[in-house]
Amino acid sequence: MMNDLFNQLFSRRQLLKTTSCGFGFLALADLCTRIAAAESTNPLAPKAPHFKARAKHVIFMYMGGAPSHVDTFDYKPKLAADNGKSADGKGNGRKLLKSPFKFSQHGKGGLWLPEIFPNLAKHADELCLLNSMYTDVAVHGSATSELHTGNFRFIRPSMGAWALYGLGTENAELPGFITLNGAGGTANFSSGFLPASYQGTKIDAGGGDKKGGSQLANIANPRLGAELQRKQLNMLSQLNRDKLGKDQINPELEGLIESYELAFRMEGAVPQVMDMSSETSKTKEAYGIGEKGTDNFGRQCLLARRFVEAGVRFVELGAGGWDQHNNLKAKLTSNAHGIDKPIAGLLEDLKQRDMLKDTLIVWGGEFGRTPAAQNDDGRDHNNKGFSMWMAGGGVKGGYRHGATDEHGAAAIDKKMHINDLHATMLYLLGLDHEKLTYRYSGRDYRLTDLAGVVAKDVVA
Amino acid sequence: MALARRTQLALMPIVAATVIAVTAAAQPKVMPGRPKITPGATEPRPSKEGVDFFEKKIRPVLVHSCYKCHSGDVAKAKGHFVLDTHDGLRKGGDTGEVVSPKHPDKSLLIEAIKYEGLEMPPEGQLPDEVIEDFEKWVEMGAPDPRIGKAANPKNKVDLAEAKRYWAFQRPKEPAPPKVRDTAWPRSDIDRFILARLEKEQLKPVSDADRTTLIRRVTFDLIGLPPTPEEIDAFVNDKSESAFATVVDRLLASRHFGERWGRHWLDVVRYAESTGKERNVPYRYAWRYRDYVFDSFNDDKPYDHFIVEQLAGDLLQTTNIAERNKWIIATGFLALGPKSLNTNNPEQFKVDEIDDQIDVTGRAFLGMTIACARCHDHKFDPIPQTDYYAIAGIFHSTETLAGVSAGKRTATERQLLTLKGNDKTLKEAKPETKEQAAQQEEISKIEKHLDDLHRMQKQAMRKPPKPMPGNRRPQGRPPAAKTPKIDQKRVREDIKKLEDQLDELEKEPTPLGNYAIAVRDAGAPADFHVLVRGELKDKGPDVPRGVLTVLRTYQTMRLSNPKHSGRLELAHWIADKMNPLTARVMVNRVWEHLFGQGLVDTVDNFGALGNEPSHPELLDLLAVQFMDQKWSIKKLIRSMVLSRTYQLSSAHQSSNYEKDPGDKLLWRRSRRRLEAEAIRDAMLMSSGQIDLERPLGSPVMELSNRQVGGNKGMQEVRKATNVRSVYLPILRGQVPEILAVFDVADPNLIVGKRDVTTVPTQALFLMNNPFVLKQAEQMAKRILGQSGLDQTGRINLGYRIALGRLPSEHERSDLAHYIDDYRKAIATGNAKGNAQLAAWTSFCQLLFQSGEFRYVD
Fold first, then answer.
1. Residue A6 has what DSSP assignment?
2. Whether A216 and B649 lie within 8 Å, measured CB to CB
3. Which pLDDT value is given to residue B463?
4. Which residues of A touch B339 (CB under 8 A)?
């Protein structure tokens, strides 16, 4: 067997530093020219924003299943007062159901938060609640694509892919767009018609009931050291580029070539970034790692910080199970518990490292839920009004943007469509959503397509 | 309310109470939460018989045949007449009074449904017996217990308008269009493609060369690369029919069914476990898989394929093997994802039905019928009543997947037993006495456990309080005093029983002669609307039926008390009159051969789908498909023999400017190989592939318990060299190599797979032990070939992996690479076989190359 036979003298880092063109063989000169040419058009190279960026990175926390806003971030005293009354047509003849949770005010901004987020509440003055969200459909799959891509009908590039397309990435050894949970299938982190290299990379965050911690499959070669693998990839790159030359235009092959280069760089960088052993036990504890219920999301949050710190542009995390058609109180309590400490830990950590100011955190699900009861202790889907929140990255803290009606059935004040959310996120990243376009099939496309208004109110 | 009624009841004399209770039971549709309005102030309360008659015979017909135009908002209803409320029906519309109680001869309603004057419903006359029912009902005084507003007045579907939608028109064979370049087309397919290209001022590129073409068609038809011998034979065949010879050989190959059957398995969300929270194996799902492969190999007429899958158990035959096959076919309905955590059997059933409606609607019809579970379809003309008309069919069907609501494990008891002694049954042994006893024991323990859980739950429940706003129609009987139980003891007992179960279920039962399938339920019956899809909000009954917008014959009565209606449903789908069935299937086939469907949204032909790029071509193919007795092989043959299919993938800038996505097919779009084909091609190149069909599936080795931690998982994970389509597909546990390359998620109906390009795929091809092993085996194969020098070896490697010879340039680069690599290893104080390592690296390079992963 060839195992362990080829351990190399060079460390991978040395290798990357000293041999930018790989190993010498006859095609060296030629190859160097090609790589240089490729580098100048590297689609992932950092690009200047359209205007001053408030945020450089995004951590998007996707809450799959659509969390109930009236039980979390949209305090509705009138709903409690009208508990049991008919929802007047807004709930198809159902009765209004008050939130089972106590709300109280927090921070200087006095935001109302429910008792199920005791740790997050300590950071109330970082939160910018978006209470007037609405979206087009109340079907999970479609609304999830809309949340991720701005469109529920077609497969379109995901917001992470757009961010990468607009800004490139700061660390060429890591994917620029990472999804730690791969929410709702590949379409939600695909590059759509954008070049394939903008696609999100799925990484298993580990933790929870999974053994062995976080990992990325096949990150290390069991036989070859870095030198020999580099040699192989140089040859591969040459073969692929020959083919590309023949094909003239072949975007898939370009993406493929880039994917190998990135994979090689990842082999060095990813294990380092994902190795949490350098974190103190106090830090881990602050994120709820190792604690029942919070371990999984805690790991995701800490990994997100490490990725962002390393320069990753867009990280998506996820916690599912928010589809409370019944069993609202118990499920929401445990769901909230699962994310409360981890998010608080992340906010604290980012603040301490002075990273919160340029890291935009966005929290939310695909839609909200009805103020009226379903199955006595549940709520139905509601796309007409729901809540998300932002933090860091140049948004106002302790602030509440927009509102739903008195019961929380529909957004009425400063209504914010998913397209508006995306426009605002891009704005915070220094991108004009109307200028960030990509020509495909005869017309220019945008993340916000033909809509989207930046909610300037939320900008600090 | 329920409580209030009970209180009232308790206060009444026994006799009166009985009467009231009966009346209440006979009015299940009455919403107790609503204000009581005495129907018609001057009218006497309808008798029980009258109400019964209305509910059974009249209301369903009104809902099904009249509501679409005569319900909801009076101002918008046809003729300003609504009959979804008592008052509306009594009041009449523009033409005045419609019902004259006790006088059928004076009632406009009767006149209209008899087609004397007005003709209602306009789609076709109601069956005679229904008309008689209506006459009788009017004679009875038109008893109508309905109060308040109709259940579903919003989102009315305008069916007359909807019928004009393109996909609901029967396909007509179009005349082939005129083209300017008459020399180019080889068939009508080409004429349609070229005419459109000419119209848009695009020109088709050159034809593909033969080595490209044979690689393309071999992957497309059997999912494997051509061997060097096959390539040579084609390249050297100078006859005119050379390509047709290749195509016919591939169509006749037993691997054809594996390739095309797998496409079908994507669409029918095939998997070998329940998925969801309690992932329990379907140990006999593979029989359905093999059935599908055989069906494609046998070129089974597609219409019969449909009928077998929906209702094979109801077809008549005396041939035992055929009978088995048809039973297995209905696995189509049974194999969906199921949530065993659902404790309520009726909830479990309606969820199962939803899956069955979804797969039936989308796989065969490209219709998202399941969207109408909770309300009328928002975009397509599918009223909620249509959903429940079909739901009634499946509600009258018993699904035998070996699992049931709230159970932790599967059981052979809930499967269908096959008879006979064909190959796959030979290994099967009948249940031994010991096993039967064991099953008996398991059932007993399960029942005991259920009881304990129930006790535990009841004890924990707080005494019921009348809650304002709690409107439970029937209400549970008031929980007699909460029993005091020893919680600790119960917990211990549960633990003990669960341990016993674990012990009993540890070993898999031996392979049995079972099939996952369906059969008609004991007492087929119509189902009713579930308002907003909620189990406890019962709406009106709906006679079993099909999509109203596509009802091809009005008189079709599915509500036969003796049958579920599945066979009728199947025949309605597999009917030439159905405008969707053939179109949807030819479009699926087109998509697999050309990379995108003529309708790009292959699983959705509804309003949210895309319109066809070449509507007439789609119709031509559909009509020809049906005329050719629904032969899939003939359909494929006609497509691949077209010139369009045989175009090269060359770039052409002016075309590219106008149509970068190649929607109009001016060239061949390059295609990424599917996950299965990538793996199979590596195994073919290494010479390690096992092309035989394995008997069954490793999933048979699992016990009936949950997949995680199941003793048999080692067997499931064991590396084998069988074709990828035979790898075990457990939901949530799809083999890595398939998952990395975008295999269809078996929880979803997937007509078109995702194609992604991500570094995780690169990492797989760089570092995964399977890839390294195949590369090494291929290297050994090349080095083992006698009489080859280095050039000969490089040539052979190229021919095996890429189906062509390397260019001079490639050959010399690679020669240097191999020498260089060998030296690097030899000097790196390694003791390994430098020669083998260098050639292994060469072979792995070929696997990694874009050319290997894509087909031109």
1. B
2. no
3. 47
4. none
What is the rounded CA–CA span in Å between residue B243 and residue B237? 9
Identify the closest residue of chain A to B532 by CA–CA distance.
A92
* Whole-structure pTM value: 0.72
Instruction: Give SS3 for A397.
Output: coil
Q: Which amino acid is at B14?
A: I
B470 has a chain A CB within 8 A of its CB = yes
Q: Which residue has the tokens 């004890």?
A: B459
Per-residue pLDDT, B708: 72
Residue B32 CA: distances (Å) to CA of B5, B53, B398: 9, 21, 32
- Which token pair is B707? 């997949």
H-only helix segments in B369-525? 384-395, 423-426, 433-460, 487-505
Q: What is the DSSP letter of B726?
A: G
B697: left (phi over 0), alpha (psi -120 to 50) or beta: beta
Q: Identify the CA nearest to A318 among candidates A284, A349, A362.
A: A362
pLDDT digits (tens, 9 = 90+) for B683-711: 999 999 999 999 889 998 888 888 877 77
The 3-class SS string of B5-40 reads HHHHHHHCCHHHHHHHHHHHHHCCCCCCCCCCCCCC
Question: Both tokens of residue A322?
Answer: 């928010």
d(CA B837, CA B490): 64
Which residues on chain B are in Cβ contact (under 8 Å) with A442?
658
pLDDT tens readout for residues A201-228: 888 776 433 444 556 778 888 888 888 8
- The DSSP letter of residue A387 is E
What residues in B contact A247, CB-CB < 8 Å? 649, 651, 670
Q: Report ipTM (2 d.p.).
A: 0.75
Q: Is B482 on the interface with A (CB under 8 A)?
A: no
Across chain A, how many H-helices and E-strands are there? 12, 17
How would you classify the pairing of strands A314-319 and A368-374? unpaired
The residues of chain B scoring below 50 in pLDDT are 1-42, 149-155, 462-480, 554-555
Using an 8 Å CB-CB cutoff, list chain B residues near A83: 469
Please write the tens of the pLDDT for every residue from B422-475. 555 555 555 667 767 777 787 788 788 778 877 776 665 544 444 444 444 444
CA distance B769 to B372: 47
CA of A182 vs chain B CAs: smallest distance (Å): 13
Going by C-alpha positions, the residue among B597, B592, B696, B691 that lies closest to residue B636 is B592
Q: What is the number of other CB atoms lying within 10 angstroms of the CB of residue B753?
A: 17
Q: What would the DSSP string read from start to end of B182-209? A: TTS-SSHHHHHHHHHHHHTT----PBPP
Please report the pLDDT score of residue B149 as a whole number. Answer: 47
CB B354 within 8 A of CB B336: no
From chain B residues 355-414, the ones with a CB under 8 A of any chain A CB are 371, 378
